Amino acid sequence: MSLKVTICDDSGMARKQLLRTLPQDWDAKVYQAADGEQALTCVQQGQAEVLFLDLNMPVMDGYQTLHAIQQQQLECLVIVVSGDIQPEAHQRVTRLGAMAFVKKPMSGDELRELLQQFGLYQPASGHLQLVDERQSQPENALDVYREVSNVAMGQAGDHLARVLDTFIDLPVPNVNFIAPSELHMALQTIDNTERVSAISQGFAGSGILGEALTLFSDTSIDDVCRLLGHQLTGSVRQQRIEALMDIASIITSACLNGLGQQLHVEFTASQPILLGEQKAVRELLAESEQRWQNLLAVEIGYSLKEHQIDFDLLLLFPADAVKVLDQQLAHWLAGQED
User: Fold this and answer.
1) Which residues contact 316 (CB under 8 A, 6 or more apart)?
2) Would you state the pLDDT for residue 133?
3) Which of 13, 165, 272, 314 is least crowded, fewest Cβ atoms below 10 Å from its Cβ?
4) Which residue has the higher pLDDT, 235 or 138?
């Protein structure tokens, strides 16, 4: 009898990638879920003897799903496949009963070896059956950008977590094509009534130009200073600026590095500059409105709950850069199919 397998990821592209990676001669019937709630239903209905589970998802995330499986004492072998590669994330899912933890993207050889290690796969034992092939298709171009950003976000979060020795809560990236005048609307995690400060860094690589904006709410800045206080000197205002620039440089550099690895592009970032202090979001972003006509905006809201720190990283790609980005992504997707 075929093994029942469910792939759970909010990204259609990520599900399609994993489907391509599964051994085609695996005697398994594959179901799909777009969030943890759907995955839990699959487990309850006997459609997930093996569950490939993402962590950062809407509705019900991977941690909540693992907790529910554990609480309900459901029979299921869970393999977490995530862009969030922080050591503490690994420890958390292990405590919640996950059998293995692997990072995105995963190669076919790695997956085959893992399945054989747990006695789940024998070569040429059958053929892979996809229950609903329609679900394997990415929803649209934004789904592709979102998944690439998700992997880069996870690498950046891991780097920052190691530097600061703390756990970083990671969201689902918010990705949209917008007009510059709509920049403030792209920020979902910052209250538009709040005063914010921002650090700007331009970046470039292989014809792709863009700007990274790191925005801090005023309620987080003092906590950032306390977190990095041992590294700072000078006046109180200078300490605040240095702290913001330190965090912005770390997260921007790591995120661009993660993005560049996937696109085979080496990004170079300019020195960080203070774009503005203690301003309304709309006022602070007004300068960027003058630079480009249309943008691909990637918003990532990072949270350091142990230190009461929340900030947003906004990656902005103008229309000309998006054309080059599309070419690089097409090449990357073709490579994934090989």
Assistant:
1) 183, 210, 211, 212, 213, 288, 292, 295, 296, 297, 298
2) 56
3) 165
4) 235
